[in-house]
Write a sequence for this structure.
């Protein structure tokens, strides 16, 4: 009982403290999001200053952004741009003219102009795989149904391709221009059952021809100039937990993140292509007109895919 | 769906027990005396009246009346007895009775309030033990309107909520929101019963008020844990309210006005001494009153209405019909007029309940039988009433029969019940795992409870409850035990049991301003389950001091809580969690002359353990343990009431240590990189960079409330009472919560001076 007044006084003294801040001091200053893409001449990353308020401001993030190719130590300074999104919000997107190379590791650094702590992330671009195009196989079932398949085997892929695109190139004899026609569906692809380092793509050329025939006038005026296959490969770190790009999951800070002293994710994307010509006999069997040497330039593929008029079917 | 073998076996056992009891009753050799004790003034039943039988020798038999005023003394050898009925503040009732062999006599009597009060030397049973704040017995606390009147309040109508928040172990996270946590349990884990009707969300948006004004209350039993086999369906606690019957002698009533609420009650006989009615209504007047006084938006609107008809058909049977409606509408956390006028975040709920109760005393067998029928409904809306973004409705029909046998050696209670619930939610993205279809849940079950005294000192209440859900194929067997050991001035009590809750209420506790509750059947994992264990000690070393200490433990399993997410206000997924609650209540109660006071200290620690795979990358482990929002570790309540020269001065000081809240490192935008991503097309979604869940603590809370009352007797039955009060007298800036999205701070109510007026007739 005699301690009751003491308890009362203690409680009262403790109770005098009533200031509270919900924001904890942190050294982390920036969130970075972006994918370095082998397909791009200019790379972009979003730099978001970590702020103590809900509402973002449009003010200068006060940051210096640079990238370093680690094998060559070549440094590129990035420039800031202010972008207004479709929803009216504004963000800072830094950009730099940079072609990334397969197998190279790039380090992106964001440093406050008036600070020393660097927020950084590293990404290694997927290595160049090798592709082997096997001769097409022709088979007739019950003498009427034609089955033509062609296998392409990629070697050196660490993970399954994120995307596989296939297209056919035709030469317009009317104006001697090439036309690339991309198919809207992916070919069958799978990891080789015996050798996991191999990734097999099997194209169904009859199905492709039927699809193309319904969309473009295949015939003598539009000879087939070649076939192409391009795979998009994400870097080894670009694998979400459970292989599921679930926003609720990935929004948790630290999930799919490789940023030191900050948040976010810097990834890289490799794009690898293989192109080839179809044997004339196979092209004819499928109903295509094979490309005669006199029809066009000898080196059909001296231009990268997508250079020409591009149609998707 | 077929009821499984275990259930069938238990039902058969129950039937066997029943038949056995009837046979035992038929073979009874000794007399039984039973009846109802009422206040002669208005015919109200009186709880805690000691009814004593003495014969010419030293033989002494007795019982205390329960909340219906009912008492039963069994095992009385035939002979002449001198009966006394005594109750504090009332004249002793005396009579001489001749009881024959095997006689079952119903003896109802009235006792008269006033001078000549005598205290009997014997306090007979447990009914009186739980009265007073230190009368804590096995988690049970009984509350009467007289005790509620001691709590300073900004009006004269008095309310059960004010008293509950003065009890240790009862946590209100703020004086706004209407959320009461009892010994670690969520508000939706508390079963609130009023005359046997389930009331889902009875606490009003302003923390002083519930749907239960003290003017309609008879006795309220609050089981903070360890409740007996007669209760079920909730995990944490039971608040069992019995209401007053209307005055059977004369028309009476009261009207009061104050800055928060205006209230009125009228009651009276339809058939004098046999049939009475009581109507009560209260309406908030905050806009015209309190909001102007504090000069801040208090966008709350609430009201409640209650009605009861009670009839005494004969001296052996009585019945009542009760009906309650309560309504709340408001915006928690409005900081300015613009927010107060916006109905985007408005929460609305409405309770409706109606029920009937029939009690009979069969003339040939020594039992009391009760039949209950009720229907309860809750509708909960979030957003504009016309087009709410979320709705949840629950409707429940209850039928129950309870029987108590008075066999002499022990009282045996058993009951059967049936419940049918309809649950419907439209949640607008909240609680994605909850079915938005209409659900129908049926439940049936029963219980057996023994009430026996071993030797002279040990009182045991073992019980067993069986709850079966035919529509879900689940059956639960729940053993319960309550025991009290009295020796001299000391009392030791223990209680415990196993509890399940099939129908749960879900509230997103990550946002303190969001009190929308979705009622649904248990959504994920197993059915929520709790185990309670508590040990209490009570002592009365002097006539003016009583001390009670009680420790408790609750293990909670299969809870559904909101997942920890960086987008708390936009979406909610549920995750399973378990919890543990340990604590200690200690109470000192003083009564000396014109002064009454108590000091309560409560310690409790609530820990939840949850598992969420998403957070392992952020916090390093998918399993995490945290103290939920209602984990108030230390709590102190001091109350003093002094009556002098016709004035009553009530003061109450509350102290609470800080509640947990979640801190953050800051905000950024989250951009979903799903392969090559065009950053110009994706603005990102605002994200909170949370620190560890509920890792911070809000500042301590304390407040002093004072009221001064004076009653003026205008005529014999007419009294005018004036009140002056101050809530939060020293204007402590108590933090309610910080909105992490806006960093705005919402404080609890400031100093509110108030005057009130009540006219009773």
């Amino acid at each position: 009982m005699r301690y009751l007044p003491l308890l009362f006084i203690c409680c009262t003294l403790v109770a005098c403290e009533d200031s509270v801040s919900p924001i904890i001091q942190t050294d982390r200053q920036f969130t970075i999001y972006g994918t370095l893409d082998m397909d791009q001449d200019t790379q972009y990353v979003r730099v978001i200053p970590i702020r103590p308020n809900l509402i973002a401001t449009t003010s200068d993030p006060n940051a210096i952004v640079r990238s370093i190719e680690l094998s060559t130590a070549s440094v590129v300074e990035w420039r800031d741009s202010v972008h207004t999104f479709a929803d009216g919000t504004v963000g800072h997107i830094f950009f730099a003219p940079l072609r990334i190379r397969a197998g190279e590791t790039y380090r992106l650094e964001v440093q406050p102009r008036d600070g020393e702590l660097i927020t950084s992330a590293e990404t290694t671009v997927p290595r160049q795989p090798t592709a082997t195009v096997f001769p097409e196989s022709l088979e007739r079932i019950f003498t009427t149904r034609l089955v033509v398949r062609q296998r392409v085997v990629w070697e050196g892929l660490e993970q399954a391709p994120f995307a596989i695109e296939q297209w056919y190139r035709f030469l317009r004899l009317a104006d001697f221009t090439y036309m690339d026609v991309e198919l809207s569906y992916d070919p069958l692809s799978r990891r080789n059952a015996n050798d996991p380092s191999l990734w097999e793509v099997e194209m169904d050329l009859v199905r492709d021809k039927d699809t193309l025939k319904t969309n473009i006038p295949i015939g003598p005026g539009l000879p087939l100039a070649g076939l192409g296959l391009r795979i998009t490969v994400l870097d080894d770190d670009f694998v979400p937990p459970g292989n599921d790009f679930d926003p609720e999951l990935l929004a948790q800070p630290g999930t799919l993140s490789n940023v030191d002293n900050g948040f976010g994710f810097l990834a890289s994307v490799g794009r690898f292509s293989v192109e080839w010509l179809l044997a004339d006999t196979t092209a004819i069997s499928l109903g295509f007109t094979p490309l005669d040497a006199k029809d066009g330039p000898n080196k059909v593929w001296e231009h990268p895919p997508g250079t020409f008029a591009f149609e998707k079917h | 769906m077929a009821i499984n073998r275990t259930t069938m076996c238990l039902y058969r056992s129950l039937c066997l027990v029943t038949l056995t009891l009837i046979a035992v009753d038929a073979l009874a050799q000794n007399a039984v005396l039973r009846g109802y004790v009422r206040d002669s003034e208005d015919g109200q039943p009186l709880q805690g009246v000691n009814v004593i039988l003495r014969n010419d020798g030293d033989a002494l038999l007795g019982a205390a009346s329960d909340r219906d005023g009912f008492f039963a003394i069994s095992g009385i050898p035939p002979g002449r007895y001198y009966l006394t009925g005594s109750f504090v503040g009332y004249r002793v009732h005396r009579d001489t009775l001749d009881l024959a062999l095997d006689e079952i006599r119903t003896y109802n009597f009235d006792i008269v309030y006033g001078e000549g009060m005598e205290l009997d030397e014997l306090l007979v049973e447990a009914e009186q033990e739980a009265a007073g704040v230190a009368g804590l017995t096995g988690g049970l606390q009984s509350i009467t309107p007289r005790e509620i009147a001691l709590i300073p309040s900004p009006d004269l109508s008095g309310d059960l909520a004010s008293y509950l928040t003065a009890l240790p172990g009862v946590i209100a996270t703020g004086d706004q929101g209407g959320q009461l946590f009892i010994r670690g349990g969520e508000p939706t884990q508390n079963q609130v019963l009023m005359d046997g009707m389930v009331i889902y969300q009875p606490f009003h948006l302003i923390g002083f008020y519930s749907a239960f004004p003290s003017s309609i209350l008879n006795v309220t039993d609050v089981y903070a844990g360890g409740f007996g086999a007669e209760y079920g369906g909730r995990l944490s606690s039971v608040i069992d309210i019995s209401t007053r019957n209307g005055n059977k002698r004369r028309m009476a009533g009261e009207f009061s006005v104050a800055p928060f609420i205006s209230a009125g009650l009228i009651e009276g006989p339809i058939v004098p001494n046999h049939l009475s009615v009581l109507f009560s209504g209260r309406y908030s007047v905050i806009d015209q009153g309190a909001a102007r006084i504090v000069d801040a938006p208090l966008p709350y609107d609430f009201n409640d209405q209650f009605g009861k008809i009670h009839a005494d058909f004969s001296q052996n049977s009585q019945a009542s019909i009760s009906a309650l409606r309560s309504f709340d509408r408001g915006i928690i956390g409005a900081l300015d007029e613009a927010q107060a006028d916006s109905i985007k975040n408005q929460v609305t709920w409405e309770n409706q309940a109606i029920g009937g109760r029939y009690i009979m005393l069969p003339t040939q067998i020594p039992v009391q039988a009760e039949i209950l029928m009720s229907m309860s409904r809750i509708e909960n809306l979030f957003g504009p009433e016309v087009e709410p973004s979320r709705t949840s409705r629950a409707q429940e029909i209850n039928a129950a029969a309870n029987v108590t046998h008075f066999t002499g050696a022990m009282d045996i209670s058993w009951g059967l019940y049936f419940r049918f619930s309809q649950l419907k939610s439209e949640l607008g993205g909240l609680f994605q795992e909850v079915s938005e279809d209409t659900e129908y849940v049926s439940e049936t079950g029963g219980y057996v409870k023994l009430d026996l005294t071993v030797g002279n000192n040990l009182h045991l209440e073992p019980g067993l409850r069986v709850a079966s859900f035919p529509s879900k194929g689940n059956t639960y067997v729940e053993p319960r035990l309550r025991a009290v050991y009295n020796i001299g001035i000391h009392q030791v009590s223990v209680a415990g049991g196993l509890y399940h809750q099939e129908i749960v209420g879900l509230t997103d506790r990550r946002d303190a301003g969001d009190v929308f509750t979705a009622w649904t059947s248990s959504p994920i994992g197993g059915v929520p389950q709790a185990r309670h264990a508590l040990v209490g000690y009570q002592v009365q070393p002097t006539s003016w001091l009583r001390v009670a200490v009680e420790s408790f433990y609750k293990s909670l399993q299969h809870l559904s809580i909101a997942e920890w997410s960086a987008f708390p206000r936009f979406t909610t997924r549920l995750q399973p969690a378990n919890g543990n609650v340990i604590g200690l209540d200690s109470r000192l109660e003083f009564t000396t002359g014109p002064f009454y006071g108590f000091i309560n200290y409560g310690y409790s620690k609530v820990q939840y353990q949850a598992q969420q795979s998403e957070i392992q990358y952020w916090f390093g482990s998918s399993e995490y343990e945290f103290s939920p929002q209602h984990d108030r570790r230390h709590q102190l309540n001091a109350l003093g009431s002094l009556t002098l020269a016709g004035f009553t001065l009530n003061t109450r000081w509350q102290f609470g240590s800080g509640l947990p809240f979640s801190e953050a490192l800051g905000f950024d935008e989250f951009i979903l990189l799903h392969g090559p991503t065009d950053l110009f097309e994706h603005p990102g979604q605002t994200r909170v960079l949370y620190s560890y869940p509920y890792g911070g603590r809000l500042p301590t809370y304390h407040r002093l409330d004072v009221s001064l009352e004076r009653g003026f007797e205008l005529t014999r039955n007419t009294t005018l009472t004036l009140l002056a009060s101050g809530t939060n007298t020293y204007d402590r800036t108590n933090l309610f919560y910080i909105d992490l999205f806006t960093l705005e701070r919402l404080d609890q109510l400031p100093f509110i001076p108030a005057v009130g007026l009540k006219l009773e007739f």
